[in-house]
TrEMBL record:
GO molecular function, one term: symporter activity
SUPFAM superfamilies: MFS general substrate transporter
Name the UniProt record assigns to this protein: MFS transporter
Membrane topology, record value: Multi-pass membrane protein
Organism: Chimaeribacter coloradensis
NCBIfam families for the chain: gph
Transmembrane segments: 97-117, 129-154, 175-192, 198-218, 252-276, 288-309, 316-335, 341-364, 394-412, 424-448
UniProt GO cellular component terms: plasma membrane
Swiss-Prot/TrEMBL GO biological process terms: carbohydrate transport; sodium ion transport
Main localization, broad class: membrane
Length: 477
């Protein structure tokens, strides 16, 4: 038995459930799965708005509308997919969640390429194509990503290992963000200068993403859940009961609220930084360097999460991250200095703090699965995770549409020298919006979140005792 398992056993109440430890290969594979997801998702989140405004020639407000309405569609798709996953009962040897990764990877890669295709239509036709292609991408992404995220709750119930899995996932997400931020713009200079030349770069990222998702599928395993035979016989729980269970899951609802704040802040920052480097700093070449150093600090933050979570708890780690994030962004705004170096240094501080915040969301969401099961008697991994991602898609809708609206309001003109008003609008998006939302998140989480490690261990013990009392036939989870 490892030192970690001895420590965990000593910390748990007598009779608490013991879960098998995960292998390093499994954690690595799970993290690489989000590298694959990120290669395709980050291209759209960071560069697609600029592609719409500067390449397709869509008006900024119309381009922002594409993000707003397609992300609302994605949010509904997430919850539908989560419900579908939870109500599946003909579960084969591949498991409950893994088949979605296997069969959805290639279609997701094709949809990524389609969203960056220049159709050559009329302005109205081009706008319709932007809506169709990005909605298609969002639907397929939901089908792949909802089961992938739900896997944490099915892989382990060990809270330390869940924090580690969440950190591996965030590390994978940040690695994808680093590579797309640093490499995408330089690679564009290497491809043919034809109208569709950028598709070569997008296609390369999409192919790499598909291969990484397939590697993830082949190396992760579902451990938590009832025996397969019981799953095949059990009828699906009523849909209305599942919805009511979500409404009674207080930690999940609070998690969705703060995620709406921080994920919106983070994604607005990602979109704004492309415009900020080109039009405020007047050097788009800074973007890869900023991405390299700031993402390096993100990896440092991700590496700190397991230790901080184990010794200080997830709640304290999360609040600390919010404070550091807000400090970095607000310093960048209120103490501007000439040159790119101070901007990069304060940005590194902000991204380090954001890593502490974003790394823990998946662990909190998995904890909410057990809380919901304890509270209502229903184990709804898919619905919990999809409701959580519903809030993320709402924040993406805000993050995608808000920059377009602000750019139109301040008089942004593509590929031109901007007015002082436009530059200040971009600066507000880059620093003030994320900095203030990080502060608000700190206050909300510190004051209202109550599901700490001690209470979580008590819930696990209560669930084990409930299962032992009722037997497999009485366990509807």
């Amino acid at each position: 038995m490892t030192q970690h398992s001895v420590t965990l056993a000593a910390a748990q109440p007598a009779g608490a459930v013991q879960t098998p430890l995960l292998t390093l290969r499994e954690k690595l594979a799970y993290g690489l799965g989000d590298v694959g997801n990120g290669f395709m998702f980050d291209l759209g989140q960071i560069y697609l708005l600029k592609f719409y405004t500067d390449t397709l020639g869509l008006p900024p407000a119309a381009a922002g509308g594409v993000f707003f309405f397609t992300k609302l569609f994605d949010a509904l798709a997430d919850f539908s997919v989560g419900t579908w996953v939870d109500r599946r009962r003909n579960i084969g040897p591949r498991g409950k969640f893994r088949p979605f990764i296997l069969f959805g990877a290639v279609p997701l890669g094709l949809a990524t390429v389609a969203s960056f295709w220049q159709p050559g239509f009329s302005p109205d036709g081009t706008l319709l194509w932007a809506y169709f292609s990005y909605m298609l991408f969002g639907l397929i992404y939901s089908i792949v990503n909802i089961p992938y995220g739900s896997m944490i709750a099915a892989m382990t119930q060990d809270p330390v290992e869940r924090a580690q899995l969440a950190a591996w996932r965030q590390g994978g997400s940040n690695l994808a963000l680093l590579i797309t931020t640093v490499c995408f713009v330089p690679l564009l200079a290497w491809v043919p200068t034809s109208q569709q030349g950028a598709l070569w770069v997008v296609g390369g990222f999409a192919l790499a993403g598909v291969l990484l998702q397939l590697f993830c599928y082949a190396n992760i395993h579902e451990r938590i859940g009832r025996p397969e035979a019981v799953q095949r016989r059990a009828p699906p729980f009523p849909l209305l009961d599942g919805v009511r269970a979500i409404g009674r899951n207080t930690p999940l609802l609070l998690l969705c609220l703060v995620n709406l704040l921080t994920f919106s802040a983070f994604n607005v920052k990602l979109v704004a930084q492309v415009y900020y480097c080109q039009y405020v700093l007047r050097d788009i070449g800074i973007l890869p360097y900023m991405g390299f150093f700031s993402m390096g600090c993100v990896f440092l933050g991700v590496a700190c999460v397991p230790w901080l979570s184990k010794h200080r708890g997830k709640k304290v780690t999360f609040v600390l991250g919010c404070a550091i994030w807000a400090l970095g962004d607000l310093c960048n705004y209120f103490w501007p200095t000439p040159g790119a170096l101070p901007f990069i240094l304060f940005s590194c501080l902000a991204f380090f703090g954001s890593a502490l915040v974003n790394s823990l969301y998946w662990a909190f969401a998995s904890d909410a699965v057990e809380y919901g099961e304890w509270k209502t008697g229903l184990r709804t991994e898919g619905m919990v995770y999809s409701f959580f991602t519903f809030s993320r898609k709402l924040s993406q809708a805000i993050a995608g549409s808000l920059p377009g609206v602000v750019l139109a309001w301040v008089g942004y003109r593509p590929n031109s020298v901007q007015t002082p008003t436009a530059e200040h609008g971009i600066t507000l998006l880059m620093f003030i919006y994320p900095g203030l939302l990080a502060l608000l998140t700190l206050v909300v989480w510190w004051c209202f979140y109550r599901l700490d490690e001690v209470r979580y261990e008590g819930i696990l013990l209560a669930l084990q005792q409930r299962r032992q009392a009722t037997g497999p036939a009485g366990d509807r989870a």
